[in-house]
Amino acid sequence: MLDKASLIEFLAQPLKIIITTHHKPDGDAMGSSLGLYNYLIQTGHLVTVITPTDYPANLSWMPGNEQVIVFTDYIEKATNLIAEADVIFCLDFNALSRINKMGPLVAESKAKKIMIDHHLEPESFDDFRYWDTKACATAQLIYTFIVEVLEGKNQINKEVATCLYAGILTDSASFCLPNTTSAVHRITADLIDAGAVNYTIYDLIYDNTSENRLRFLGNCLYNKLEVLYDYNTAIITVTKEELAKFDINTGDTEGIVNYGLSIAGVNLAAFFVERPEIVKLSLRSKGTFPANEICKNYFSGGGHRNAAGGVSDASLSEAVNQFKLILPKYKNLLTQ
Length: 336
What we know:
By secondary structure, this protein is α/β, with parallel strands linked by helices. It has helices at 4-11, 27-40, 75-84, 102-108, 138-149, 158-171, 182-193, 198-206, 211-223, 240-245, 257-261, 291-298, 316-326, 331-335; strands spanning 16-21, 46-51, 69-70, 87-91, 112-117, 128-131, 225-228, 233-238, 268-274, 279-285, 302-303, 307-312. It has two domains: 4-206, inorganic pyrophosphatase (n-terminal core), CATH 3.90.1640; 212-335, Diaminopimelate Epimerase, Chain A, domain 1, CATH 3.10.310. The chain is 40% helix and 18% strand. A hairpin with a 4-residue loop joins strand 9 (268-274) and strand 10. The longest helix is centred in the N-terminal third of the chain and has 14 residues, at 27-40. The relative contact order is 0.10.
């Protein structure tokens, strides 16, 4: 493992650097990646952001986005860049399975691997780890990594600040989650001072949807929402036929689970989506309810206490029934 001094010395020379993040990147993943990209290009490095898959259109406005390589679109080029890299930054994930077919390529690369992340139970594939499960977003950690480890606060310009603000905004659920501490607000204040225009960033992310997506949301809330008041739990289910009917694209299902949690008295919200080969589950919870425990123990997943995800090989109805059978085990926590 590299220590801080060795890392700083290593990064002092011009290097070929790859930045990557988890598949189907969200706002924090792209904000972290492009925030770090915009910092590193100021310091003489040759930097490339490679995402394992595509990502939502409402994130494509971030500074540096035009330079991003999507692995599934440019496999040969991305493979060569990974093989030739001196450093690979692994952001917002801590298991190589989270980058799909890029995982073995990163593992085999002779590059130094630097993990910056806030998820539980990291794998040991990295040479340097900047990791804190209490952070509200990886973008928060990128800020402190730049400021406290690399001593590069003066290089946090408008482009860096804009991307990092977007990452913190999205992963904190617009500053609503319990880990949005006073320190987080001080960081976002610094980012605003550095040029991030907070209201514009919010508009580009949240007020930039398609008509199809809005109609899909209406269908989810009117036709597919089930509230289990005995367990203070809300469930929304979506079939693959509904995804096709509304022409749903990458990112269009993002955040819908939160609507269930907005119901008075509901402490746990679940969102089930039927995909071609698996059923995907997103959980959101309030207070101390361990959403990540349910995902880890029953749905081959994990995440944070109040925001977690998992998958099931069963049918959509079977996965939902399995979830409902689990709820009695947590009734005391859900109804307290």
